[in-house]
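Lab intake sheet, docking and co-folding queue.

SAMPLE TYPE: protein with bound small molecule
LIGAND NAME: magnesium ion
LIGAND FORMAT: SMILES
REQUESTED OUTPUT: full 3D complex as structure tokens
PRIORITY: normal
SUBMITTED BY: R.K., bench team

The fields below were copied directly from the construct record.
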Amino acid sequence: MLIEDQHPHNKSIMVAVLGAPNVGKSSLINCLLGTDLSVVTNKPQTTRNKFHCVLTVDRTEIVMVDTPGLHKSNQEFNKRLNEQAREGTEGADLNLLLIDISRDILNQFVEFKENFQQDLGPTWVLFTKADKVEESENLPLDIVIEKARQVLPSIEKHFLISSKQNTNIHLLTGAICDRAAPGPHLYPNGDISNKNQRFFVTEYIREQAFELLKDEVPYEVAVVIDEYKELKSKTDPNMIESHISASILVNRPSQRAIVIGTKGSMIKEIGIRSRKKIEVMTGGPVHLNLHVKVSPKWFSNNFVLEEIGLPRAKDSNRVWRQK
Ligand SMILES: Nc1nc2c(ncn2[C@@H]2O[C@H](COP(=O)(O)OP(=O)(O)OP(=O)(O)O)[C@@H](O)[C@H]2O)c(=O)[nH]1
Ligand SMILES: [Mg+2]
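RESULT FIELD (auto-filled):
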């Protein structure tokens, strides 16, 4: 990147967005971006990969790193999710640690420390879901933060936010911009992520599967692209049509039946809903062909895990299972 190509007043900052599953990390990123880029569901462990989401305010670029929720687990798959979260802080200038105010607050700090397993750089605490607590509860956040600093000494300041109601989001954006240092932008061409459209296609399909499926099934589902073609529309040569074939991997034959649904109703619904979101992203018509494949124990199969962007973690168990 040529620094002289960029405006001399440019500023940039990388912020890692961290916290337990379901605290509202991806929702905050979408709220800051003003678009539904990152997938959000009401189930924990929705986000599985770390990735950049870029917001530019005037001359300041904020590169936010969405991360999977840190949690305790000895499962190979979950270890790789946690590794993604830890790696998400590498190179970050600032960490935003999200704490769900409607849950046990101090416990979230203690669990985060246990699961993060390394030193944490400069950190701001964001107490999320402020809309879920009554104002009359008047939470003593200053006292909470003092206690939290005994666990995580790098905490600098805190905000009480609600992504749902946009509470204090502007305050937070302004503070992050003030913190940004003069320097070139990492994404000077206006990219909003370091992940490509193929990644977001798999995410939007998985998001709907997560939303619509119950019990253990969402957690035993992965999505891989089989074919992705962009063709000029026959009716309008200025329009690009995306022809996408994707497979939804499940662990057991009984789950295949569930994902397909009665007379194909479930897979049809997943397809209709995800296609709408993919069309918004691509800006053109999408032909989406979904299949369901049984891939026993895909979540401990290194080939599948690598394919869905989850390389082996430092504390991984060795997994040799063939696809
Ligand atoms: N009431 C309320 N709900 C929120 C708020 N922010 C997020 N949520 C909800 O919390 C749930 C989890 O949100 P996500 O953004 O997916 O949380 P996450 O931390 O990214 O979760 P993982 O990716 O699983 O780690 C969803 O149902 C959101 O709608 C908020 O400000 N207020
Ligand atoms: Mg998330």
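REVIEWER NOTE: The mean pLDDT is 95.
SIGN-OFF: pending second check by T.M.
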